[in-house]
Amino acid sequence: MQEKIQEEIEELKKDIQRLGTKNAEGKYVVKFGVLFNDEKTQQYYENVLDFQGQMLLKGAHDNVDIILK
C-alpha cells in the first residue's frame, strides 16, 4: 500500500509541474482550480502540497496557489 501511495504522489508531482509554473523560489505553483479541473488530477495529498487554509472548495478557492514542497 505504501508503494501505491508513493506512486500516486509522484504522479501528482508530475501533474503540478505540467500544469504549473515556477515561482520566485523555484518551486512549482498551480492554481487549485486548474488542478481540480484537470482530468488527471482531482485530489491533493498531505505533505506534498502546500496551501493557505485547512481545506479547499471548488469555486470558492479556484485562485488559491498550490505549491509543490
TrEMBL record:
<dbReference type="InterPro" id="IPR027817">
    <property type="entry name" value="Costars_dom"/>
</dbReference>
<dbReference type="GO" id="GO:0032970">
    <property type="term" value="P:regulation of actin filament-based process"/>
</dbReference>
<dbReference type="Pfam" id="PF14705">
    <property type="entry name" value="Costars"/>
</dbReference>
<protein>
    <recommendedName>
        <fullName>Costars domain-containing protein</fullName>
    </recommendedName>
</protein>
<dbReference type="InterPro" id="IPR044302">
    <property type="entry name" value="Costars"/>
</dbReference>
<feature type="domain" description="Costars">
    <location>
        <begin position="3"/>
        <end position="69"/>
    </location>
</feature>
